[in-house]
Specification:
There is one protein chain. The protein is of the alpha/beta class. 19% of the residues lie in helices and 40% in strands. The chain has helices at residues 16-24, 38-44, 59-64, 92-100, and strands at 2-7, 27-30, 49-51, 68-73, 76-81, 85-86, 89-90, 105-107, 114-119, 124-129, 140-149, 152-163. It has a 5-stranded mixed sheet with strand order 3-2-1-11-12, with helices on one face. It has a 5-stranded mixed sheet with strand order 4-5-8-10-9, with no helix packed on it. The longest helix is centred in the N-terminal third of the chain and has 9 residues, at 16-24.
């Protein structure tokens, strides 16, 4: 069983409130637009981190993090990427692979809009944690927390941090 903290779109912003939730997780997953790597360095000091780079991330971040991360957590096939679209409107760069090799959990960032939706057509759970940083049009900074227990994704929580 693993307790996961999922965040995205920090845009170089990290604070004690985010790190409080990092400390409570078993692993942290970052869905891109990290910004300054001080963000991921601070997370890695506390917990194991998986992440992907986003469209604002520079060459240094792109050397440290991949564009896509496909892996298993417990018995759950996971795919994290930054720009993946949403169910029914997936990005053309991932659409065919999603259709032919769907994960059980598909995670994206980029939109700054928190969304969790089950895609019945592809039989996958889509998650976008919104934005944990202060840059962008979103009004409230958000993250997601959930548990993966064998094949099950459960105990999903929305974390609202503060107004940006």
């Amino acid at each position: 069983m693993k307790n996961i903290l999922l965040l995205s779109d920090t845009h170089s912003y990290i604070d004690a409130q985010i790190l409080k939730y990092v400390a409570q997780a078993d692993e942290v997953w970052h869905a891109g637009d990290i910004g300054d790597l001080k963000v991921t360095d601070a997370i890695k000091e506390l917990k194991p981190l998986r992440g992907v780079y986003g469209n604002i991330d520079d060459a240094t971040a792109r050397l440290e993090f991949p564009e896509h991360d496909r892996f298993f957590c417990e018995d759950v096939n996971v795919w994290i990427t930054h720009i993946g679209g949403t169910p029914g409107r997936y990005n053309k760069l991932v659409r065919e692979d999603l259709k032919n090799h769907p994960p059980k959990l598909f995670i994206c960032g980029h939109s700054h809009i928190l969304q969790v939706k089950y895609d019945k057509k592809l039989e996958l759970l889509f998650m976008n944690p919104g934005a944990a940083g202060k840059h962008g049009f979103h009004k409230v900074r958000t993250m997601l927390r959930f548990t993966i227990d064998g094949p099950d994704i459960k105990n999903l929580e929305i974390i609202e941090l503060a107004k940006r």
